[in-house]
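Take a look at the protein record below and tell me what you see:
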Amino acid sequence: MMGEPSFPWSVHRSGGFGGNLTVVDKVLPDMLHMVHPHWYQFPPMNPLWHGLLGFVIGVLGFVSVMGNGMVINIFCGAKSLRTPSNLLVVNLAFSDFLMMFTMSAPMVINCYYETWVLGPLFCELYGMFGSLFGCASIWTMTFIALDRYNVIVKGLSAKPLTKKTAMLRILLIWAMAGVWTAAPMFGWNRYVPEGNMTACGTDYLTQSWLSKSYILVYSFFVYFLPLFTIIYSYWFIVQAVAAHEKSMREQAKKMNVASLRSSEASQTSAECKLAKIALMTITLWFFAWTPYLVTNYTGIFEGAKISPLATIWCSLFAKANAVYNPIVYGISHPKYRQELQRRYPSLVCAPEPDDTTSAASGATSVGEEKQIPA
């Protein structure tokens, strides 16, 4: 069992914070070679911050593991939800599950000791896992957006997504994520302790071009390229939905009826609702990870003074994204809510309508069964 570590600075703890102490003073000797000189100018953080960070990451970890575990269980266990498109949803939940399963407990331990106590190798693995699962999540969301584009915009001319194709895309996602996040383990950049010394991530303070080039290239392929692909997809999705709704209203007006909502039209509406869910999930991802990207760019371009507290909160905010997705699906996905109500009735606040009365009930299977015209 890990005991209370003994540090030479422990005699000063009763003297308060600041003085000649720095945030690096508590770092174990075997970790000092990984700490950038930038952090030596900052005083130790108040233990209350460590306690708060440990509590928050612990709660987020529990909620994420339970929530994403339920998503995986329900989408894999319900026959009506086992469609090619939903394989991507399961992959997203799996990535988010692993993100907090590997990130939460180590940070809680380190917040208790107020420094990284798990050794250099685990620091590198911690940074790599965070980067790996974040990369897998965003590229999964990108393929989800492309799938919505294929179904809604291309319609009948689109090639249906098969389970084989979905599995190949998932394999590609993990292969890309593995290559990009393994690079710092072999000398292209490196994984180092974050500012408050309780978590690890990419080195954005070393000013060599070898180190900076990794941040620039990685951010392009794992942030900007997925972002532009998603914007492209949803731009045409919104246009197709608007054109379809306008056509429906004009036909209804000519026929002097209130609505032309047929079964096929309802399925089209269901596809649009599913696209909205995907868009909400993706928007939350970018809101979560953008502050961490800004921190990295601030470091490599020396744009401002980065404090330990700012870096760890940006890192924590990014990891919190793993909590959002099960909540989004719990609120917005009717068929998921129906299955959740059947399996865990105490977790559903309001009963979900039956499939025959839910406009979005066929949203997850329509892409497999029939392509909808734009």
Notes: DSSP finds ten helices and two strands in the chain. Residues 31 and 314 are 22 Å apart (CA to CA). Residues 46-251+263-344 form a domain with the Rhopdopsin 7-helix transmembrane proteins fold (CATH 1.20.1070.10).
